[in-house]
DNA sequence: ATGACATGATAAA
DNA sequence: TTATCCTGTCATA
């Protein structure tokens, strides 16, 4: 379930139970055994979310980098964790074995990236990312400038993490529906008002997503015709995976854009 | 049981 | 543009 809101929520939730504690780090699956050994029994100082990336800063200077990709998922358990992990647990972090405080366990399965980096390597990754609307240090002007100068479709641009960090396929469809912009329009053809709408809507939707712990972009929840396929538990969208427009009843268009399926209303978005 | 598909990203061609 | 990686879920059989 990983767009930017998920990542920031993870940083917050795991931060509460893992930071400023010494962790036991292992790789039950084995693929991350060498990396785990580098940070095992180190003290975790902070967890930082940037776009869809997570950085765990350890006292010794090592930085654990995690990117969930499409399939990655974290499990957070009270206690020392299930002895027999279900599935392929790439990374396991256990707090509480050294400080006498309540134990907590984090399991990670299926990530695209899970590696121990140097601070320089962390900086290189962050340097490739555009502003993240969920971060207080985000500069919306960088986003506006990039959109204004590109001929690419705005729907493709929103998935480009070097332009704006944290947007995924669901939020792309929802933001452009809310701003009434056709995803296929060229970035440089958008008005200043429209570009500002995209940023402000992205920020508002992502912040709500962090708060709710899920994607609910539509007002009043389950309003309107049912989506083509049932959304994930508790999630509700305007255009994403719908086949009828919630606002005007038109058939939602579905097409490839930026190597992903895109949904939009041909009447409401133009 | 089996297979299509998924809220992601990269390297190779 | 395509092939590839990673895991779980859902629809179909």
Describe the structure.
The chain is of the alpha+beta class and 270 residues long. It contains 7 helices and 10 strands. The strands form 2 sheets. It has an 8-stranded antiparallel beta sheet. A two-stranded antiparallel sheet has the order 9-10. The mean pLDDT is 91. The structure holds a DNA duplex (13 and 13 nucleotides).
Summarize the structure.
The chain has 270 residues and is α+β, with helices and mostly antiparallel strands.
Q: Mean pLDDT across all residues, rounded?
A: 91
How many DSSP E strands?
10
> What is the general shape?
elongated
Q: By helix and strand content, what is the structural category?
A: alpha+beta
The biggest beta sheet reads: 8 strands, antiparallel
Task: Describe the SSE topology.
Blueprint: H1 4-18, E1 21-26, H2 33-39, E2 43-50, E3 53-58, E4 63-67, E5 73-78, E6 89-95, E7 104-109, E8 113-117, H3 119-127, H4 140-148, H5 154-157, H6 169-178, H7 192-212, E9 253-257, E10 260-264
Antiparallel strand pairs: 1-2, 1-6, 2-3, 3-4, 4-8, 5-7, 6-7, 9-10
The chain binds a DNA duplex (13 and 13 nucleotides) through helix 6.
């Amino acid at each position: 379930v990983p767009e930017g809101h998920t990542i920031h929520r993870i940083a917050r939730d795991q931060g509460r139970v893992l930071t400023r504690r010494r962790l036991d780090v292992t790789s039950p699956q084995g693929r991350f055994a060498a990396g785990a050994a580098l940070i095992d029994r180190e003290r975790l100082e902070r967890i930082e979310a940037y776009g869809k990336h997570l950085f765990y800063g350890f006292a010794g200077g090592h930085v654990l980098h995690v990117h969930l990709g499409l399939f990655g998922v974290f499990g957070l358990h009270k206690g020392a964790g299930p002895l027999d992990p279900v599935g392929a647990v790439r990374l396991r972090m256990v707090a509480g074995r050294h400080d006498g405080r309540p134990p907590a366990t984090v399991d990670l399965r299926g990530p695209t990236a899970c590696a121990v980096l140097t601070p320089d390597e962390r900086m290189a990754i962050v340097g490739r990312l555009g502003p993240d609307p969920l971060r207080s240090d985000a500069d919306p002007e960088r986003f506006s400038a990039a959109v204004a100068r590109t001929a690419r479709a705005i729907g493709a641009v929103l998935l480009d993490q070097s332009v704006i960090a944290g947007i995924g396929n669901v939020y792309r469809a929802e933001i452009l529906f809310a701003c009434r912009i056709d995803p296929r329009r060229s970035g440089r053809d958008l008005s200043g008002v429209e570009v500002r709408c995209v940023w402000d809507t992205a920020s508002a939707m992502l912040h709500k997503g962090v708060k709710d712990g899920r994607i609910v972009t539509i007002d009043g929840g389950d309003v309107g015709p049912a989506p083509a396929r049932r959304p994930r538990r508790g999630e509700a969208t305007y255009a994403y995976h719908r086949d009828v427009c919630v606002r005007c009843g038109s058939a939602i268009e579905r097409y490839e854009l930026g190597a992903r399926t895109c949904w939009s209303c041909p009447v409401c978005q133009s």
